[in-house]
Amino acid sequence: MRLLAACFLFVGAACSPETTQLEPDFTIEASQRVSGSNFLTPETVAQQNDDFENPGYLWVERGADLFEQGEPSCAGCHENGLEGVATHYPAFDTGTQTLINLEGRINLCRTRHQGLTSLPYESDELLSLTAFVAEQSRGLPISVEVTPQTQSAFESGANYFMTRRGQLNLACTQCHDDNWGKQLRGDTISQGHGNGFPAYRFEWEDFGSLHRRLHDCDTGVRAAPMELGSQTYIDLEFYLAVRASGLELESPGIRR
Ligand code: HEC
Ligand code: HEC
User: Fold this and answer.
1) Model confidence pTM above 0.90
2) Is position 217 annotated as part of the catalytic site?
3) Residue 36 belongs to what domain range?
């Protein structure tokens, strides 16, 4: 990746692409796959792992309260809890014939089973319910597979990951497959996995979804970001989940 190194050294210098679309390949072997928390300080990891010190648990608690609300309530139908469920999302919903993420699944339950409206993406309520459901899979490995029904979504996610974009003309793969472990603007580039989300980010001073993080990476290369909750980001989220298979879920994660 000499070209990328040159782009980093001379930001703003010509980084003209030889091709726009890079070849999809899993350059990170399963044995080398590591969570973004590996690149955090031990103090931050300790804070993440302490339910009382981790600010994300405020959202988990609010989610637990919301889970009791509605007629019937979420809890009324899911009395045995939702342990392990988050490990297989995004997933294909046969009713709508679309790939949905956890946020979409929760909103489907509201509209389909509770006669309520969808919660806006990134709203505090949707984040809280998502955190509450995701937390029940903490420590469990991501288990998402490509099926004939999700093949095209997987390809669209892979294409997004491999396509150069923005004024910096960089693809996700160039940072997160080819240059993880290296420094960039005072940060260590991780492998770009979504297993910590929704997460509390110090930079946000707030809790946010994976899509908000993706939005930040897109704007980081000065590209026009996609809408949070858009099918493009859901497909990308799916690609990321397949790429991160086996990594343990950490939500509510803490990140810089
Ligand atoms: C210029 C390099 C660069 C590009 C291009 C880039 N990112 Fe990132 N990304 C970063 C940095 C730096 C961070 C923050 C540190 C870290 O966790 O890697 C980050 C964080 C992330 C995270 C959060 C990881 C965690 O554990 O918190 C995800 C997920 C991610 N990126 C996905 C993507 C995707 C998908 C794309 C393409 C749309 C992309 N990134 C493009 C540099 C980049
Ligand atoms: C009236 C019963 C009912 C209510 C109320 C309900 N759900 Fe569901 N939920 C279901 C059913 C049935 C499914 C299986 C998929 C389907 O048929 O829609 C499901 C699926 C799910 C799943 C995915 C499970 C999996 O294994 O993939 C999640 C997560 C979920 N519900 C969360 C919620 C949340 C959060 C609420 C409250 C906002 C809620 N549900 C309210 C009936 C309900």
Assistant:
1) yes
2) yes
3) 31-44+142-255
